[in-house]
Amino acid sequence: MFEFITDEEERGQVGIGTLIVFIAMVLVAAIAAGVLINTAGFLQSKSQETGQQSSKQVSDRVQEVATVGNVTDSGTIDIVNVTVTQAPGAGEIDIQNATVTWIGPSGTYQLTSTTQNYSSTDIQNASNVFSYSVVKDSDGSENVLNDADDRLNLVFDTSTFTNELNEGEEVTVKVNTMAGATTSIRFTVPESLGNKEAVEL
To answer: What's phi and psi for 119, nearest 5 deg?
Structure first.
């Protein structure tokens, strides 16, 4: 009529229950560890990618070498040539993919690249553009600055987006590369342009 449970049976039941709980805890811990490992790997890759992008935004920029303006017969500057090279530590910079902001006395203009080897006939029907010409290029990469010795002229024909520059006027040119790095180039037109064909700005 009555069923007696011995101490050995009670200990066996408790042992099985403990084993089940232990296995469940191991499974939960394994799943949690897998999630943590995957999350850590994802965060590491994202942080590396973010670090690389941040580094490029700082280093992949151009550096001004010289800025020269062409003086017209009427005593104004109509064409500005800005010679640029890679900044120290910069990677490859494709000038055709760069955007330029011209901030001058007549306003602010967003410029995009047009043709290589500037000529007025190439851009006579264009607007809000700049051109470029190769000064020094050892490997034929043309529009790409990929060596510290490379030199490119950024050519700004003011007739395509603004007025000619007069004596004493100031301009800021911001060159933004595809990596997001920006270089600011500031220059001022000399107070006297008489009897000159070109002036350093």
So the answer is: -150, 145
